[in-house]
């Protein structure tokens, strides 16, 4: 039987972060993961993260995964892949299936970072080939380069449903609709907005009634639901699709914690092990981190992993109590900043009607996926100027501030509170570099030049689709709802390594369309 200081179960963002922090203290760390590649969900997350620099803001998930793996390797962390942990026992012994063998390992401390699994919903035809989870769709697209389907309907408007819908569009799929039984969009408004301006309709207070097909999905019928989430007769709508994608939540994979004898509690997100502020469960020396202890974003999982790694090192005598406390306090401060704003845990399931600044929240955004024309001007980032300037359509208090750091002229201010809405400093001069546009994780910043030509303006927007339009190409400008509003001509395409594959597309539109044109279709 092999013995180690620490065994970490799961090589995702939480597990790798925990292993790194423990290894920094000199601990002998062994990590198991059932997959063929480490990194967990990070390597299929091609979008940019929110938060601040300390949270890896504006860095794409797969790049964060590479950074964690490189650091773990430098510190001598041993990662065993294709290793299924079958059992975890009270004496911190684990049984692991590796190939055709079952091996036994033992450690002085265990960190469980097994993550979560996708939920499913049942409806007539839900077992047909072509009904898949959003995570499966991400794996097919972003790891294997395979389109999940040609015409896709997405069920679920949380962040996963919104992000994967946009990635489906990037992969060349047609997303025919976003559907949710809830009356409001569940994820970040900026994620919804970038999908809506591509022309994808939202059907809130709707659910799937039936999937059509014999050998595979050929269509889907949805219907409006009443206050008890029951379909309302006569409201059915049919779509011809070959794929139905489900993004209906996650459940913590907490079975190993329960097997080890950890005290379990029921939460809104599922059954999770009870743990203290250090991530330690009711079983001495067994810690948890990441989604297994409660569903949050990957940024939070990494911080929880660091806390668990530091705490395990203290438990085994590799850190003093003072070192443990100072390390954990720094991580808790970073974690607390992510748990602020409209999407804080305390606000889950609640309708927040005003921003922290006292501005009315866009109900159109919550119900249709985009901010209406008569609502957009109320937000402080939407300003007018005779010269080129940023227009920031960030309308919710989300923990994110890379735009403030990216601007070389300090045109953008968010302030000490990371969830504050961005504002434009009227005393600063925008040079039109586009760094703010490229850095925005929600693709919610545009550069507007209202003095480009007599009667014409330019709008510079983030663009992450291929093929890239070429200068001189003519097409159509779409508004926030995805509706065509005017002819447009491409007058500039800018790509730089610093933009990290967010291209800047500049289109020329009539002056009165400068605050409506938000997407370009060739």
From TrEMBL:
Keyword Oxidoreductase part of the UniProt annotation: yes
UniProt keyword list: Oxidoreductase
Gene Ontology MF terms: oxidoreductase activity
Pfam families recorded: Pyr_redox_2
Record domain 4Fe-4S ferredoxin-type: where: 384-417, 420-450
Positions of transmembrane segments: none
Annotated protein name in UniProt: Pyridine nucleotide-disulfide oxidoreductase
């Amino acid at each position: 039987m092999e013995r180690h200081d620490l065994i970490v179960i799961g090589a995702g963002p939480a597990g790798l972060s925990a292993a790194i922090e423990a290894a920094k203290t000199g601990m002998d760390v062994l990590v198991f993961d059932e997959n063929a590649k480490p990194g967990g969900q990070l390597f299929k997350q091609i979008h940019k993260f929110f938060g601040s620099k300390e949270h890896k803001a504006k860095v794409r998930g797969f790049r964060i995964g590479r950074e964690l793996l490189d650091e773990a390797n430098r510190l001598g962390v041993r990662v065993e892949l294709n290793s299924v942990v079958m059992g975890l026992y009270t004496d911190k012994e684990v049984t692991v299936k590796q190939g055709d063998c079952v091996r036994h390992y033992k450690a002085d401390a265990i960190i469980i970072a097994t993550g979560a699994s996708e939920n499913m919903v049942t409806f007539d035809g839900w077992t047909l080939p072509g009904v898949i989870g959003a995570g499966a769709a991400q794996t097919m697209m972003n790891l294997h380069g395979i389109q999940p389907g040609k015409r896709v309907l997405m069920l679920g408007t949380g962040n996963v449903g919104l992000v994967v819908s946009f990635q489906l569009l990037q992969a060349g799929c047609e997303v025919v609709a976003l559907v949710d039984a809830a009356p409001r969009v569940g994820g970040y408004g900026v994620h919804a907005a970038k999908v809506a301006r591509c022309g994808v309709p939202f059907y809130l207070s709707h659910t799937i009634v039936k999937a059509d097909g014999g050998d595979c999905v050929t269509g889907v019928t949805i219907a409006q639901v009443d206050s008890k989430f029951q379909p309302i007769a006569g409201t059915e709508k049919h779509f011809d699709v070959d794929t139905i994608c489900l993004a209906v939540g996650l459940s913590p994979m907490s079975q190993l914690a329960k097997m080890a004898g950890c005290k379990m509690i029921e939460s809104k997100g599922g059954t999770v092990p009870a743990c203290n502020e250090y991530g330690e469960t009711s079983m001495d020396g067994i810690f948890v981190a990441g989604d297994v202890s409660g569903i949050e974003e990957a940024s939070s999982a990494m911080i929880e992993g660091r806390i668990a790694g530091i705490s395990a090192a203290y438990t085994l005598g590799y850190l003093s109590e003072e070192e443990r406390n100072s390390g954990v306090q720094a991580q808790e401060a970073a974690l607390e900043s992510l748990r602020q704003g409209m999407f804080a845990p305390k606000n889950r399931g609640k309708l927040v009607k005003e921003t922290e600044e006292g501005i009315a929240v866009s109900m159109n955004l919550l119900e249709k996926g985009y901010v209406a024309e008569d609502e957009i001007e109320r937000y402080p980032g939407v300003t007018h100027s005779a010269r080129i300037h940023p227009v920031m359509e960030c309308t919710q208090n989300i923990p994110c501030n890379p735009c403030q750091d990216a601007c070389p002229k300090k045109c953008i201010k968010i302030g000490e509170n990371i969830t504050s809405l961005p504002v434009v400093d009227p005393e600063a001069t925008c040079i039109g570099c586009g760094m703010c546009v490229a850095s925005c994780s929600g693709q919610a910043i545009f550069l507007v030049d209202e003095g480009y030509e007599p009667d014409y303006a330019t709008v510079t927007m983030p663009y992450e689709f291929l093929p890239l339009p070429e200068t001189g190409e003519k097409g159509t400008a779409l508004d926030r709802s995805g509706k065509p509003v005017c002819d447009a001509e491409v007058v500039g395409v800018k790509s730089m390594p610093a933009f990290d594959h967010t291209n800047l597309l500049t289109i020329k539109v009539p002056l009165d369309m400068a605050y409506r044109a938000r997407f370009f279709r060739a």
